[in-house]
Amino acid sequence: MNGFEDERALENLDPGRVDSRYWIRFHGTVMEAAAPILAARRARARMTLGRVFLSWSRLLLPATVTAAAIATLLVLYDPASQGPAGPEDDFVLGVEEVLWVAEDEAAEEPFPTFLFLDDELDRDVILLALEDY
Amino acid sequence: MYRVVTESDGTLVARARLGDEVAFGELVARYRRPAYTVALSIVGRHEDAEDVAQESFLVAIERLDDCRKPDRFAGWLLTIVRNRARNLMRKRAVRVTEEIPFDAPAGGLGPEREAELGELREALRRAVGTLSTVQREILLLHDLEGWKHREIAERLELPAGTVRSHLHFARKELRERLRPVHQPEAGGRAG
């Protein structure tokens, strides 16, 4: 109301000036009319939360069941869970072990095995031949 | 209830979107008077302004999801009020720019008081009715609702300088038109 001499005249335009309960009634009228809209909004909000939970459960339940089934199968068929290994199992070699054994055996022989297939060949003669070659 | 009063418009809008009656009630309490005032500045009649303001709140709660800047709820609401008021005027085939029968609310003060205010109200009706719509709106929001220049500028999305200018000319116009009414009572008060 800065500097306007007749500003109080404008108060006549305020319905609350002549009726002290006017704005309370105004508020009540709006709230009463808005009640169904607000109720619908609340219902939508609840439904939205329910849908989110439902969508989670739709994804989570099958995933959980599948994971549980896989875990059960793994537990049932895991060799480690079958108890201590039997005596015959000690002699089972893997591929890598076989390769290492073959390499070790080859290292013990200074020359290729095929060179000594004929017992009559003289080892020194072969060496000389290789040096000349 | 006290807790709600301190909340920002943005927070209240977010809660009202979920159907919170207390939050929406607080928004109505905050802006019922500005909504009515803006409507009155356009439609000119108390009954029409009341209808427009109340309907605007219902439109607002229905379309609250369209309020892209919840912290600027007031400006958004007043835009709805303005549009509905103008639609009402168009329906009545009354041009907004022409002088409209500006009406004050019916009184409940009794016949003596009503008679006392009658002359002033009539002069006010004529004076305010001659202002442009935007001048009426700014004048009423500032002098009746107590909004600051900055608030009016933000909420009506007008430059602050424009608001000051409209307010200045609206006051000048109103003062000149109301002077004959007040001069005898004011004892020669300068206008």
Average pLDDT of chain A: 72
| Overall number of structural domains of chain A | 2
CATH topology grouping of chain B: Rna Polymerase Sigma Factor, Chain: A
Helix-strand sequence of chain B: HHHHHHHHH
Q: How many domains of chain B, as an integer?
A: 1
Instruction: Name the chain pair with the biggest interface and residue counts per chain.
Output: A-B, 35 and 48 residues
Helix/strand/pairing class of chain B, anyone? Answer: mainly alpha
Query: At the first level of CATH, what is the class of chain B?
Result: Mainly Alpha
Which structural category do the helix and sheet elements of chain A fall into? mainly alpha
Question: What is the radius of gyration of chain B computed over CA atoms, rounded to a whole number of angstroms?
Answer: 18 Å
Written overview of the protein:
The complex is a heterodimer of chains A (133) and B (191). In chain A, 66% of the residues lie in helices and 0% in strands. Chain A is mostly helical and 133 residues long. Chain A has 2 domains: 7-82; 93-132, no CATH class. The longest helix of chain A has 56 residues, at 22-77. Chain A starts with 6 loop residues before the first helix and ends with a helix. Chain B is an all-alpha fold and 191 residues long. Chain B has a single domain, classed as RNA polymerase sigma factor, region 2, helix turn helix motif (Rna Polymerase Sigma Factor, Chain: A), CATH 1.10.1740.10. Chain B is built from 9 helices and no strands. Chain B starts with a helix and ends in a 5-residue tail after the last helix. The model of chain B is unreliable at 95-99 and 185-191 (pLDDT under 50). Classes of the chains: A mainly alpha (133), B mainly alpha (191). The A-B interface holds A 1, 3-7, 9-16, 18-19, 22-23, 26-27, 29-31, 33-35, 37-45 and B 16-21, 24-25, 28-29, 32-33, 36-37, 40, 46, 50, 53-54, 57-58, 61-62, 64, 104-109, 117, 120-121, 124, 128, 139-140, 143-144, 146, 171, 174-175, 178, 182, 186, 189, 191.
